[in-house]
Every structure is written in C-alpha cells, then in structure tokens.
Design goal:
Blueprint (H helix, E strand, L loop, with lengths): L4 E7 L25 E6 L13 E3 L19 E6 L2 E5 L5 E5 L6 E4 L19 E8 L3 E6 L6 H8 L17 E5 L2 E5 L14 H5 L5 E9 L5 H15 L8 E6 L6 H11 L6 E3 L5 H13 L1
Parallel strand pairs: 1-3, 2-4, 9-11, 9-12, 12-13, 13-14
Antiparallel strand pairs: 1-8, 2-7, 5-6, 5-8, 10-11
Length: about 300
C-alpha cells in the first residue's frame, strides 16, 4: 500500500557535556556536537510507508568531554530517505520548508546541539533542534495515464513499461498509483477519477494531487464507453475544479480497447472527440502495431 501522507518529529542529537576541571594542568575537554538530521532523495515511492510504525527520529547525541582537554566525539548524523516529490511542511505553521526533488542531497532539516565547554566552568551541551513535520508525496512523472475507472490505463502501462500493475475487468482495480519506465521516462498510472473527485469523492483528492507533477497527460477513454464526450468532460472538469492550471498541461487522448468494437465505430468516436481536442489516437493491448504507433507518438513528445 502506498502511503503518501505522514506526520513525523525529527530532532538533532543533544550536545555532549563539557568535562569539569578537577586537576592541575590541562584538563576538562569540551563536549561533542550532537548529530544533524538530513533528508535525502530516493527513487523508491514507497518510503513514506516507513513512518507507519515509527514517527520520531533522533540523531545521535554528542559524547561528554574527557580529561587532558580531549573533546568528546560528535554524534553521528541521521539521514532519512524520502521519495522524490515529497513536500515537507512545518506542522504548526503549515509553511512549505522544502520539496524533495530528484537530485536533493543532504538537506539539513534539524541541527544537532553544540557541545558544552569544558574546564572550571563546565557547561552542559545544548539540546538538538526539534521540528514537527508533515510530509506529502506528489509523484514526479513524465507521463500520467488518467481517465475514468476501467479505461484500460493499467493494462496500457504494463504493455508500455516494465510495470506489473494488477488489472481486471471491473472499476477501481487500481487503488494507488503505479509507476513504470518507458524508454528512460517515468510513466504513472493514476487511479480512475470519478465525478466529484475534486470534492474528495472516491479518494479523488488523494489521486488528483499526483497529477500536479506530471508533465504530459495521457487521457484514456474506453472504446466501450456509452458517451466518450461525457467521459472526457467529466475528467477535465475534475482537473479544473481541483486546480485550474492542470488542464493547461500537454494532453493526448487515447481511445483504448479498440479490439472490443468495430473499426468504423472507432472512427466515429475519434470524430466526436476531435471537436474537443485534436491529439487523438487509438490502441489495443492486443494489437501490436497500434502499440508500436503509440510508442512513436510518445517518443516525439
């Protein structure tokens, strides 16, 4: 199960205490610094799942100073890996702190405390910085397969990429996004949107937010549809209602499951859809040539 939202607490390590001076001559070393907490990117989209069992992460404390002015050992830093596309918010203010991108390397999220001075007036180390955070994942993909439930998106993803998404001939087989790679470009299968998705119906908001970071929309409409124009407009309206700029993304429309009906009907469906948009193609996962033709289109985008 893909978890795309989590709330966690991170804290830098406590600085080590300074060693009090007890003897003549050099004595009383400083305490070591507490470890820092960093975020680093990963291509594993399931990494927010790690927070379902643990939600507090603390770097190692610094060690106490030692005799002969020996400074205590610094605490080890803690690196937490997050999926590319994770937005990190301050839980209290809800302000965005950082978006973890594909190349994010060691973003400092919580500083470790300073070690205390050693000597006659030895000090305790400082507490590490603590931050309560909200993590929200939005998939980063070059292509996003969208459409109503049972439009053939998962089957198409499996044919075009190395994905192994579960498919079946009934709605809502896909309950979470699936990812695959088409010739070096990421392709996401976004679970089927339904009317009212932008208001939260059918987990719509959870699905819609994953379209925000998709570069090109591949809008799938089944050849079995009773009204292709209605199907097309339902999805477009939900995109607009959720965030108007989503409908400005580059889009191609694909009539899927063309093997289920007569070629003349496909021609009629194509003519109808061309009144709404110009880039329309047709495909069947059981028709090798139609898949090859679609691949040529995707390579040009």
């Amino acid at each position: 199960m893909l978890i795309d939202h989590a709330e966690i607490t991170v804290r830098g390590g406590h600085g080590g205490a300074g060693m009090p001076k007890k003897f003549k001559g050099p004595d009383g070393g400083n305490g070591g610094r507490g470890g820092n907490v960093y975020f680093k990117t990963s291509s594993n989209i399931n990494l927010l799942n790690q927070f379902s069992e643990k939600d507090v992460f603390v770097a190692e404390n610094g060690e106490m100073g030692a005799r002969n002015n020996k400074t205590g050992k610094d605490g080890n830093d803690l690196t937490i890996f997050l999926p590319a596309g994770t937005a990190v918010y301050d839980k209290k203010t809800r302000e965005l702190i950082v978006e973890i991108e594909k190349n994010t390397e060691h973003f400092l999220i919580a500083k470790g405390g300073k070690g205390g001075w050693g000597g006659v007036t030895a000090e305790l180390g400082e507490r590490g910085e603590e931050r309560k955070l909200v993590l929200s994942l939005r998939l980063i993909a070059d292509f996003g397969l969208i459409g109503l439930p049972n439009a053939g998106k998962s089957s198409l993803l499996n044919e075009l990429t190395n994905a192994k998404a579960v498919t079946a001939n009934y709605p809502f087989t896909t309950l979470e996004p699936n990812l695959g790679v088409f010739e070096g470009k990421t392709m996401a299968d976004i679970p089927g949107l339904i009317e009212g998705a932008s208001s939260g119906r059918g987990l719509g908001i959870a699905f819609l937010k994953h379209i925000e970071k998709v570069s090109v929309l591949i809008h799938c409409i089944s050849a079995e549809s009773k009204d292709v124009i209605k199907d097309y407009k339902i999805v477009r309206k939900e995109l607009f209602d959720f965030k108007p700029e989503l409908i400005k993304k580059p889009e191609i429309v694909i009539i899927t499951k063309t093997d289920t009906t007569d070629p003349k009907i496909i021609e009629e469906l194509t003519k109808k859809l061309k009144k709404e948009t110009k880039k329309i193609y047709s495909v069947s996962i059981h028709d090798f040539q139609s898949l090859e033709d679609l691949k040529k289109v995707l390579r040009k985008i």
